[in-house]
Every structure is written in structure tokens, then in C-alpha cells.
Amino acid sequence: MDSNNKQQVASLSSFIWSIADDLWGDFKHTDFARIIIPMLLLRRLECVLEPTKEAVIDLYEKEKSSGMDMDLLLPTIAGFQFYNTSKYDLSNLGSTHTAANLEEYISHFSSNVRTVFEEFGFSNTIDELHKAKLLYRIIGRFAAIDLHPDAVSNRVLSNAYEELIRKFAASINEKAGEFMTPKDVVHLATKLVLSPDEEVFTESGVIRSIYDPTCGVLGFITDAMDLIHEYNASAKIVPFGQELDPKTHAMALTLMLIQGFDAKNVQQGSTLSDDKFYDRKFHYGLANPPFGIKWEKDKNAVEKEHKNQGYAGRFGPGLPRVSDGSMLFLMHLVSKMESPENGGGRIGIVLSGSPLFTGDAGSGESEIRRWLLESDLVETIVALPTDMFFNTGIGTYIWILSNKKTAHRKGYVQLINLADTWTSMRKSEGTKRRYLTEEQIDDVAREYESFRETERTKIFKSTDFAFRKVAVKRPLKGKLVVNKDKIKLLREGRNFQKLSSEEQLAWFNFFDDNQGEHDYYWAHLLMSEHKNSFFYGKTSKALGAEFTNVFFERDETLDPILDSKGEVIPDTSLNDNESVPYGMSVHEYVNKEVLPHVPDAFIDHSVRDHKDGDIGIVGYEINFNRYFYKYVPPRPLAEIDADLKACEARIHALLQEVAE
Predict the structure, then answer these.
(1) In degrees to the nearest 10, what's the CA dihedral of 377, 379, 380, 381?
(2) What are phi and psi of 231, to 5 degrees?
(3) pLDDT tens across 609-627, in order?
(4) How many helices and strands (H and E) does the chain possess?
(5) What number is the average pLDDT over the span 106-125?
(6) What is the domain count for the chain?
(7) Handedness of CA 481, 486, 487, 490 (dihedral sign)
(8) What is the mean predicted confidence (pLDDT) over 623-636?
(9) What is the DSSP string of 567-636?
């Protein structure tokens, strides 16, 4: 954001924040946003329509009885896809019937604008302000500010809106800007998505679609449109978005209308369970879905689509755990990429670290990563510095994906680590203490385009992130040892407790008489020998297994225990797994890495991958810390000792002061 825009944002937000002072006492902090923001939008719409308002009213009065569709006729005069036919504006509502006149004014907007105020529940707000005797005063304050696009650009209005949301949220100790994406992050992601297509935008007649499934107030879309127009001012861009929160959607809808786009291009609803653009594909996708958000409300619809549609739907590869829906949005965006034969698609999505490594081999998360990497869709992942967001200091990442990779990128993934690339903010905004300058963003974009390894960039084959989770087991070796302490443990057995007191006593006496060492199958044989014996009561294999578990002691000096088929019985308490690098022989790995330490270990050949059928389950994870680890040697002991002595001296001096 340039300095002029920053000043405009600061001036506008400061003015609007001052209006909140008038609301104190009669309203709570929690009410400020729902009052001020619709007023802000109303004044914006009014300023936009002002030059053509008189002509629109004249035509409306002339044709209102003709039966013509006003939604087709009047937008041509208004110059936008919306209009207003009321004689009122904020400056002439009057002080006596202000509420009624304001309601009448809003009701004469076209239906696409009335939707905005309905989503804010603005009719109730008008009544509340009227009862508090504040309506006329608040309207007067807004009527005095010029919000025409020539005076306040869409970018400035959007930025001011986000700043207000953060301020309102922070003032009531909520998560400030819970769903806001910092502009520097937006700009970096947008540049990485669009820059490879820069040459495309030099052509005439270029038409490109942009989509954000969690669009907020169109931050990503606005940035992308601005950047494309820098490349080619004549390029035609068609934006699309979907937003869950009705009030935020109302703001996005207003901005879309003001820019002359179809109101149907921005929809309200849950993207995961109610995809409003299920039949559309897009050239570019950009999003920052909420970090770690649960998707239990969408669970039924998502699971149904996964089961019934498979890969023909959005969620074919698998489903993540319900506690984090980030990877659902990732798959959703991939499903929206335009097909390669129609120009292909590129997407950028901002995620937390969990999609990189959460979930073991075979889990939903791992299967999603596997599908993305084996389909060669992942182009670049950028690790952002910490403390970049308004409401969290955790590590965040930008994923860049494409279904039209250039030849030299096919089969490879570029990782860029920006952990040490940042600039301190003069004044923190929530937990955001760092940002990326325009120069730093341009440097990263150039490094991305060069596709060469540097200190902060590494390039890997897609399969470098894969491994096989191989089940390694050890044979059961041991004997049954019967003694008084173990006999007492029988009381805790679930099957033993089902016996009558007489039967339990009989078993206690029997084991007491047979103390000592026995082979592994001794307890099971007891079941067979005494199955019909009244003295020992009703017996079963389950009871025999319970006896075996109580009396068993592992003994490495004994031979492995075999089952009736002569197969080695594994000791389940010693089950383990080995992560074998993908492409390496499983047997070679076990011979080299496992058997020298555990000679009797063996591979469980029954555990195989569900896709390739080979031994071990294939998993994928991307561990930035492993790839960019830097060893920092410990300080010399003498230096540490000196620090400790200095600390002791300071403590001693403080104690002396207290004693005196």
C-alpha cells in the first residue's frame, strides 16, 4: 500500500471511529460494527449514484406504469447494475420522520442492493438508533463525508473496512481480524500466482476469471485485478467469490456492484457444503481459509460427496480430521482450476503448518498430500515469517499449485523459506509485528521465477517427500510363570470376574498348587483338559488368553513361539514401524537399519499399500525444519559460567539492598 493510500485509510478509519463516540452509552462495543459499516456502505452507494440519480428518477417516473422491467432499464442510465429511485438521500431525510424516510430511501434501491442491508439486519438497527435519538445525528455525520470512488478508491475502502473490523474486535478482546489477511501476504501470494502468466497479459482481448472461496471483502481478488491491470490495462477480469459471514458478504457484494460486476458473482454460504459455483472452473484461485477451523457443520455434506462422487467430486483423495478443514479448501480450489486445454489454472492458498505434516501414512491428510504431489500439482510452498498475522504468531505457508507446470518444473517442488526475511513494524497490529516490504516481495518473486537453489530456496523431486511406513514385528518369546503375586492379579480379569465365587476359588487353589514355570500353551491346554469339568467351572479360550497374559514373562533366551501352522507369533507389545525412504528396497533398509540392532525383527508382509500393493503404506509429509535446519553450536562453557557468576553477583547485590 503506497503512502497516499495509507493516509486515506487512516483518515477514513479515524473519522468513522470517531462516530463510535456518539454511540457510547446507548450501545455496546459489540454493536458498533453492525451500525457503522452499513451506514458506510449506504453513503458509498449514494455517492456512486449521485451523478445519474436525477436522470434515473426522471425515467422511472415516466416508465413506472409501463410494465417495463426496471432492473433492465434503469441500470443503463445509472451506469451500474444497481440504482435508486427515491427522492431521498442522507442529506434530506429530515429530523422529524427520519426513520420512516430512511426506510423508504433504502426500499427504493434495486433488489441486489436491498440484499446488502437485509444481511446486516439494518431495519432493526434503524429502529434502535431512532429510539436512542441518535439516528438523525449519525446520518448527518455520514452525509458530510465524500465517498465517491474518485475520492476514496475501492482499495482504500476495503482496507479501511478491515482496519475497523480489527479495531472493533480488539476493543472487546475478541480475535482481532480473525479472518483478515495482511496485505503484504495477499500481495506476495497474488504475485506468485500471476507472475508466470505476465506474457499472457500483454496480448489483446485477454479474459481471465479469478475466484476466492473464502473471499471476505475481496482482498485477494482486488489485489489480483490491480496486478493484472498493471500488466495489461485492457485485460478483462471476471471475479467470483463466496463468503460465509452474511455481513462480510454484504460488504463484498457492495464492492462488486460498484466495480460493475454481476452481483451473482459473489455468493453467500458455506463453500464446503454448498458450493455456489459447482459447475464453474477458473483461471486463478486465491484464498486464506480460517486456520484450524472445524468443519463439523459441513460434515454430512462433505462425507456424502466423498463417498458418492469420489474423484469426480472435490474430496476424492480423502478427508482430514474434523478439527481442521484447511485441506478441504485446498482440494476445493484444485477442483476449480480451469482445464489445461482451456488455458489451465493456478492457485495460491495461505495455510498453517498442519497441512504439511499432520496425519500418518494412510491418513486422510497424508492421502491428500499424496494425491497433490503424485498428480504433480504442487509448484511452490513458501514458509512465511512468524508474527505476520493479526491474530496468531504461528508459522504460515503459501501454497502455489498449477495444472500447467512449465517443462523444467514438472516433477519438482520448490520450497522457499522466508523465516529470516521480514521487516519490523513501527507499531504492532494485534500479533502482527512483522511485514514484507515491496522490495522483499519482488525479491521473492524473482527467486521463485529463477527456479534455482539458494540459501533460502531448495528444489526437490515430488517423491522426495514420500516414505513407506513398514510394520516391523518381533517374535513372541517367553514362558508362563505362576507365583502368588500374579495369582492375585487374576481378580482384575474381565472374564475371570464372570465366574462364580466357587469357580474362582477353585482356580486360585489350582494355580497355587501349580506355581513355577510352564510353557506358553499351558494355560490354553487347561481349557481343553478341563472344559467339561464341574470343579473348574465353565471355561473358554478367552479365559485361557487372560490367564496367559497374567502369567506371561518374555525370555529372550527361548525360541520363538509358533502357532498351529508353524508360523511365528508376533509379540504385539513390541510392534514397531519404520519409515523407509520412497524408492528404497524395504528389505535392504531393514537389513541395514533394523537387524543390526534387533536381530530377530521381521517385516509384516500383510501390511501393504492400498494403491501399489507393495509392502508398507505410502505416506507423504513436507518438513521445512528438516530441509532448512541450521546447526547452532552451543556457547563455550567459560562464557556460560561467566554469565552465571554475573547473575549470582546481581542477586547477591539485591539481597544486600533488601537486608539494609
Answers:
(1) 10
(2) -70, -45
(3) 999 999 999 999 999 989 9
(4) 25, 18
(5) 92
(6) 3
(7) negative
(8) 85
(9) PBPB-GGG-EEEEEETTS-HHHHIIIIITTT-TT-EE-TT-B-TTT--BBEEEE---HHHHT----PPPP
176 located within any domain: no
List Cα–Cα distances, 206 to 88, 231, 256, 283, in angstroms: 41, 11, 20, 12
Q: Going edge to edge, which strands form the sheet with 396-402?
A: 266-268, 236-243, 207-212, 284-287, 346-352, 396-402, 378-383, 412-417, 457-461
Tens of pLDDT along 293-320?
899 999 999 999 999 999 999 999 999 9
CATH number at residue 271: 3.40.50.150
Tell me the three state secondary structure of residue 339.
Answer: coil
Of 419, 417, 398, whose CA–CA distance to 457 is shortest? 417
SS3 648: helix
Which string of b and e fits 459-468 if b means at least 16 CB within 10 Å? ebebbbbbbb
Instruction: Decide if 105 is inside a domain.
Output: yes
Q: Which three cell numbers stand for residue 544?
A: 485361557
Of 488, 521, 554, the residue at which a domain comes to its end is 554
Among candidate residues 181, 266, 186, 265, the one with its CA nearest the CA of residue 226 = 186
* 308 and 289 together in one domain: yes
Nearest to 238 by CA among 189, 284, 187: 284
Closest CA to 187 of 232, 163, 222, 216: 222
CB 284 within 8 A of CB 346: yes
Q: How many CB atoms lie within 10 A of CB 345?
A: 26
Same-domain check for residues 187 and 308: yes
- Show the cell assigned to 19: 462516530
Query: Domain end: 425, 447, 468, which one?
Result: 468
Q: Are residues 414 and 511 in the same domain?
A: no
Distance CA 497, CA 354 (A): 45
Is 187 in the same domain as 167?
A: no
Answer for the pair 477, 554: CB distance below 8 angstroms, yes or no: yes
Residue 238, domain member (yes or no): yes
- Do residues 396 and 352 make contact, with C-beta atoms less than 8 angstroms apart? yes
Same domain, 143 and 189: no
Taking CA atoms, 594 is separated from 51, 91, 472, 547, 555, in Å, by 80, 82, 9, 33, 20
Amino acid at 456: R
424 closest CA partner among 396, 388, 477, 377: 388
Give the Cα separation of 395 and 413 in Å (integer): 20
* Vertex 468 angle, CA 464 and 470, to 5°: 155
CA distances in angstroms from 349 to 179, 260, 332, 340, listed in the order given: 14, 26, 11, 20
Are residues 88 and 37 part of one domain? Answer: yes
> In CATH, what number is assigned to the domain containing residue 141?
1.20.1260
Burial of 424 per CB tally in 10 Å (0-12, 13-18, 19+) = exposed
Residues 495 and 431 in one domain: no
What residue numbers bound the domain in which 82 lies?
Answer: 3-171
Please give the C-alpha separations between residue 481 and each of 462, 487, 503, 542, in angstroms, as whole numbers.
53, 10, 22, 19
Q: Is the pLDDT of residue 353 over 90?
A: yes
Does residue 154 share a domain with residue 21? yes
| Domain-embedded: residue 635 | no
Lowest mean pLDDT among 49-53, 225-229, 350-354, 537-541: 537-541
Q: Can you tell me the distance from the alpha carbon of 24 to that of 17, in angstroms, rounded to the nearest whole number?
A: 12
- For the chain, give the mean pLDDT: 89
> Quick one: which of 321, 310, 350 has its CA closest to 333?
350
